[in-house]
Design goal:
Blueprint lengths: L4 E3 L14 E10 L2 E11 L4 E6 L5 H8 L7 E6 L2 E4 L3 H7 L1 E4 L11 H6 L8 H15 L14 H13 L5 E5 L7 H16 L3 E5 L3 H7 L2 E6 L2 E6 L6 H9 L17 E10 L9 E9 L3 E5 L6 H9 L10 E3 L2 E2 L5 H6 L2 E4 L14 H9 L13 H14 L16 H13 L5 E5 L7 H16 L3 E5 L3 H7 L2 E6 L2 E2 L3 E2 L5 H8 L22
Parallel strand pairs: 4-9, 4-10, 7-8, 8-9, 14-19, 14-20, 17-18, 18-19
Antiparallel strand pairs: 1-6, 2-3, 2-5, 5-6, 10-11, 12-13, 12-15, 15-16, 20-21, 20-22
């Protein structure tokens, strides 16, 4: 394997002080006429947790891929302990002591947890020895994994644990973390913070990318802020507020979500009655006696720890999993339990799944083609049975403009967008359809503060226009901000909804953990009263 190569050249320095563990100087990265990084300087010191902040599309992920050997800079250099090095590939970066936890999982679906980890481990660390290391690390750091589980059967939170564990097993000097808590529960995030603080005390450097600014303020002692590919500032996050950090990132104040005037609750639009579905796979979760009601003007939040049936509930609501009794699922009074997703879309429903890359969007298809994917069941058709290409482009452009999707080129492939920008596109595509019912799973996963506020406001506005909304989220702050009531999914069972104003994060957290103190509330209510909305 080709290793990182030292290069004899004068050492550039961005600041005075001790030689940094790793540095990047004058980094420029161009993709055709688009410049993703424009003269970026960054220094990372041993023993510190350093935040890299910026809007979606600011150039953070591009810079990280350069440091990890996935991309070669158009200009500029990377240094290690004062020596300029070239990183021709990720293997070279790992040999140098650089590990990375990706926002978009780089896992092989058909392999097991252990096999995915073994792909980046030396040959001598395999079999029982590797399984023992995985188990020990899980005990030490609270990152439990089942080595024999196939990845396709895991929730997003469990997949994130694989990425973190296989990075830590390489004993890195620098750990790059790209949105590591975006799919973790509060408890899982707290365990991760303890791990990161321990790694910093051991003298390792950590580069932390997150749009959760309260996390940044807690963990990080330095921050570098990017905007439009350039460094626009640096600060100590502990001396800032979340709002001041957000303002530095976007260049202006970030507006809070404002609740529209409370409208009268409309007619019931979505209903589940005692829905039971078997687990779709060996390690999936069965749904047990799930009931809910959502009327026009309501936002119902569904909280829960990853792997407790969120994906299965979404599939049941969207029509990707069919019910034996069609009457178990109703849209505007019509039984749809036996209808697929296209038929439900034609009845005025829209759906945003958790996994944007591959489930919500086809990464190799253009944005206009992706706009067509969910709209074609309800869009005007030509004689040939296809939506006009121009109409698809117009639709994509409306989404791009309304949700400020940052992109390169007029109609790029979805996979070329940053994670947050692809999320904005997918959510915008569904909301602009003005659905009567919207089911959205992890709506602001991996988006910056301004974009998250925009998405949440769009959801609130859709409810104010009479839409019935179900928001499945592991972000309790998000649910308490926009949902009128919250129910908890635990082990495939949905609790009765509780008005947001009458509960607390602690009470919801007990339900999420399956606490015996909260067990009575986990029994489905025989008749669910309408929830309130903002």
């Amino acid at each position: 394997m080709e290793a990182a190569r030292p290069v004899s050249a004068p050492l550039p320095r961005a600041t005075a002080g001790p030689t940094p563990l790793f540095g990047a100087y004058g980094i420029v990265k161009r993709f055709g006429s688009f410049t993703a990084n424009d003269g970026v300087d960054l220094e990372i010191r041993a023993g510190e947790i350093h935040a890299l902040l910026g809007e979606n599309g600011a150039g953070k992920s591009t810079l990280m891929k350069i440091l990890y050997g996935l991309l070669e800079p158009s200009e500029g250099v990377v240094t290690h302990r004062g020596d300029i090095v070239q990183l021709p590939n990720p293997e070279a970066a790992r040999r140098l002591g650089i590990g990375m936890v990706f926002q978009h999982f780089s896992l092989c679906e058909n392999l097991t947890v252990e096999e995915n980890i073994a792909l980046v481990m030396p040959p001598e660390l395999s079999g029982r020895a590797l399984a023992d290391r995985i188990a020990k690390l899980g005990i030490d750091y609270g990152l439990h994994l089942e080595p024999d589980r196939p990845v396709w059967s895991l929730s997003a939170g469990e997949r994130q644990r694989i990425e973190i564990v296989r990075c830590l097993l390489q004993d890195p000097k620098l750990v790059i973390l790209d949105e590591p808590t975006s799919v973790l529960t509060p408890g899982e995030a707290e365990a991760l913070f303890s791990v990161l603080e321990r790694l910093a005390r051991e003298g390792r450097a950590l580069l932390y990318i997150s749009h959760r600014l309260d996390e940044v303020r807690r963990l990080c002692v330095r921050a570098t802020i990017l905007r439009a590919g350039r460094v626009v500032g640096a600060c100590n996050p502990r001396e800032e507020t979340a709002r001041s950090l957000a303002a530095m990132m976007v260049g202006s104040a970030v507006h809070e979500v404002s609740a529209r005037a409370v409208r009268a609750i409309g007619a019931e639009r979505l209903r589940l009655d005692h829905l039971a579905l078997p687990a779709p796979g060996l390690h999936a979760t069965a749904l047990r006696d799930v009931s809910l009601r959502v009327s026009g003007g309501e936002i119902l939040g569904i909280a829960g720890i990853a792997g407790n049936g969120q994906a299965e509930l979404f599939a049941a609501l969207s029509g990707e999993a069919l019910a034996a009794d069609p009457a178990c699922v109703r849209l505007d009074g019509k039984p749809v339990g036996g209808l697929g997703i296209n038929a439900r879309r034609r009845l005025g429903a829209a759906f945003v799944p958790e996994e944007r890359n591959g489930h919500a969007a086809a990464p190799l298809m253009s944005l206009s083609e992706n706009a067509l994917l969910s709209r074609h069941p309800t869009a005007p058709l030509t004689r040939a049975g296809l939506l006009r290409a121009g109409a698809a482009r117009d639709l994509a452009q409306r989404v791009i403009a309304a949700f400020d999707v940052r992109k390169s080129g007029p109609d790029p492939a979805a996979g070329t967008l940053s994670g947050g920008n692809l999320q904005k596109f997918v959510v915008g595509r569904e909301i602009l359809a003005q659905p009567g019912v919207l089911v959205i799973n992890q709506p602001t996963w991996g988006v910056d503060a301004a974009a998250a506020a925009h998405i949440r406001q769009a959801v609130v506005d859709l409810a104010a226009q009479g839409g019935a909304i179900v928001v499945i989220s592991q972000d309790l702050d998000e649910l308490f901000e926009i949902a009128g009531s919250i129910a908890v999914l635990h082990d495939g069972t949905l609790s009765a909804p509780v008005p947001t104003a009458e509960t607390s994060r602690e009470a919801i957290g007990l339900l999420m953990g399956g606490s015996s103190d909260a067990a009575p509330a986990l029994a489905p209510a025989p008749a669910l009263a309408p929830a309130r909305t903002h």
